[in-house]
Amino acid sequence: MISVDHALRIVLDTAQVLPVRPVPITESVGLVLGEPIISSENIPSFDNSAMDGYAVRYIDVQNASREYPVKLKIVDVLPAGKVSQKHLEEDETIQIMTGAPLPSGADAVVMVEQTEKRNDNEVLVFSPVQKNEHCRKAGDDIKAGQVVFQKGRLIKPYDVGVLASIGKSTVQINPQPSIALLSTGDELVGMDEPLPPGKIRSSNNYTLRALIEKMGITVVDLGIAKDTLKDTEEKLQNAFSADIVLTSGGVSMGEFDYVKQALEKLSVDIKFWKVKQKPGKPLVFGSYQSKLFFGLPGNPVSSVVCFELFVVPAIKKMSNVDYYMPNSVKAVSSVQIPKKAGLRYFLRGTLSKNEKGFTVLPMNNQSSGVMSSLSYANCLIDIPEEAGNIESGQEVTAILLDLQTLHELMRI
Ligand code: AMP
Ligand code: MG
Q1: Does the C-beta of 185 come closer than 6 Å to ligand 1?
Q2: Rounded CA separation 154/34 (Å)
Q3: Residue 264, by phi and psi: left (phi above 0), alpha (psi -120 to 50) or beta?
Q4: 262 contacts 233 by C-beta, under 8 angstroms
Q5: With 0-12 CB in 10 A as exposed, 13-18 as middle and 19+ as buried, what is 105?
Q6: Any idea which fold 48-136 has?
Q7: Residue 299 Cβ < 6 Å to ligand 1
Q8: Given the CA of residue 203, which atom of ligand 1 is nearest to it?
Q9: Residue 81: which residues within 8 A CB-CB, separation 6 or more?
């Protein structure tokens, strides 16, 4: 048995960043950028108007006011998308729309609200403008040759617009790993099938799938393997076309736990089996070429805890995301928590915030089969391996289970 930290180090050392590949920018959000992005163009690429109004020589309207408006001659009308062939001379103006290129000779724009059009050829201006007022200069946003985004950036929705504006339709990204999922157990039936005595509905595949899909990764569900070496081996045989293979169940000390034996037959390099933690002790981890294997315990809570602690960091490492660890805060336990030294505990709990800070309360039933308590909890209380009983008022670490928890805590 190895410690949680040691096990995680092995997982992260084994997981390798996947090679970059191109994707359309519409599929790039949430992925890590695999190349620096350099703009070959100025954005905007030409000086243009920031307002609907009149392009002027600022000098001509310097003395304009409500009482003494300046009269200008309209020599052209310029919608966005059109270039004027005219050059502004003294006391001339061109009516201009937002985004239209600033005509030659113009050096400012008077907004339409500060004018009154007398007829097609004449406008009164009621207010002076400064040089360049209401003008957007070429390159104001992005300059040609500028590094817009560094390699390694996590791509945000806003970035997609920036990439589109510089004409970059495809970018190199670090892909996320593909994941295959196999459930094991003679007791399992599909959720839509009748439930004979002694059987249970398989739920781990749904939980894990939901967790994986929330990260933007699609899952190949390989179904349910019977508790025989033959079926387990057969079902695992083709699983390694995925980058990560997850199984649930069949890794404990039971008479019918065949996952480890199947792995040995398939020449999977088993790196560790059993971690000093509760729940999730019988976790198996191995590799097959560049592919990773996690044999998650069958108990629903154990499989989720192992997923959050080990599989998520592996997914992030392979995707080249540079922060692996779950969000956590220090919190004070509001009750005494019985604990034996020797295993690191991850107890389901509810984290709350008051004027003094964070407090945490463990759920009453910590059985690793009690799936609903994960739904009702919002954190895992992380208590070190060597610790004994935790006293009421003692500080512990609370690992947040989802972003919703973070939002709720921030609202207070
Ligand atoms: P095992 O690790 O195979 O000994 O399974 C431990 C416990 O988890 C048993 O009570 C199983 O019935 C349960 N279990 C295993 N696989 C699943 C699954 N896919 N969905 C729900 N419970 C499961
Ligand atoms: Mg089993």
Answers
A1: yes
A2: 10
A3: alpha
A4: yes
A5: middle
A6: Molybdopterin biosynthesis moeA protein; domain 3 (2.170.190)
A7: yes
A8: 20
A9: 99, 100
CATH number corresponding to 21-41+150-174: 3.90.105.10
**Residue from 204, 252, 372 whose mutation best tests the ligand 1 pocket (most atoms within 8 A of CB):** 204
Q: Kindly give the distance from the C-alpha atom of residue 272 to the centroid of ligand 1, in angstroms, as a whole number.
A: 21
> Which of the four CATH numbers 3.30.70.100, 3.40.50.300, 3.40.980.10, 1.10.10.10 does domain 4-18+176-318 have?
3.40.980.10
Tell how far the Cα of 299 is from the centroid of ligand 1, in angstroms. Answer: 5
225 CB within 6 A, ligand 1: no
User: Which amino acid, one-letter code, is at 232?
Assistant: T
Q: How far is the CA of 198 from the centre of ligand 2 (A)?
A: 13
Q: What is the pTM of this model?
A: 0.94
Mean pLDDT of 161-180: 98
pLDDT in tens, 246-273: 999 999 988 889 999 999 999 999 999 9
Q: Which of the four pLDDT bands, split at 50, 70 and 90, describes residue 404?
A: confident
- Rounded to the nearest integer, the mean pLDDT of the chain is 97
- CATH fourth-level superfamily of 328-410: MoeA, C-terminal, domain IV (2.40.340.10)
Shortest-distance atom of ligand 1 to CA 205:
19
CA distance 261 to 251: 10
Lowest mean pLDDT among 105-114, 164-173, 254-263, 330-339: 254-263
pLDDT confidence bin for 412, thresholds 50/70/90: low
User: What residue spans define the domains of the chain?
Assistant: 4-18+176-318, 21-41+150-174, 48-136, 328-410
Rounded to the nearest angstrom, the distance between the alpha carbon of 296 and the centre of ligand 1 is 10
